[in-house]
Here is the input.
Amino acid sequence: MKVTVVVAIVVAVAALATAAVLRMQRTESARADATTGPVAGVDDVAAKCGENPCEVLTSVPVGQTTVELLADANGRHGRLRFLEPDGASLLGTALADMDVRLTQKSLSCFQGPTSACLVRGGSDGGVIGEVFVRTGGGWTTVEQPYYSEAGLVDLAQITGDRSPEVAVAKVPGCAGQGHLCRKVPIRLHVYGLDGSPLGCSATYSSLTQVPGWPDIALSDWELRDCP
Here is the structure.
């Protein structure tokens, strides 16, 4: 029992620390974006990523919006640019400041009544992801970061509302440090776009056993209370 309590405390403290770092880094990014101002045209990639010009790593269409992942030549100082029919806007991502190198595979998006994008990359032997959500007032970031020591953070439509949820593969009993954990067995923890926990899947012997792999084909009736 003491070991379980200690592990839970370690995980909670680590999550709070990561969230605090993300909040501080988003504040700095917001200040930088405020000084940069809106991007004038859809072909303008002259915005700064850190001290260097941004490069477009990849882009994904979300309805009438094109979402571009920007970073410097080393995959650091990432930003998201949202190209709308009536203009464009920028949001910073804190992952690059957490020693997460962004690549062409770091961005995924999901269109729905509430659309969302996920920026993710390798960190500490696992994967960490940051979620951006489209609300009535535009695109915003979600405070809670998602860390998977098993190497999977993804958007998937699981409940019946047609908006995506966040699925995070966790290794039961692991204290949140991927390089110290075995990668199996795994269990999917599912969260709403606001970060609220919705439940957990069954336990699988590997990621390839997740229904629908490499996609995620779960239904809400398959979710249960997380241990």
About this structure: Residues 2-222 form one domain.
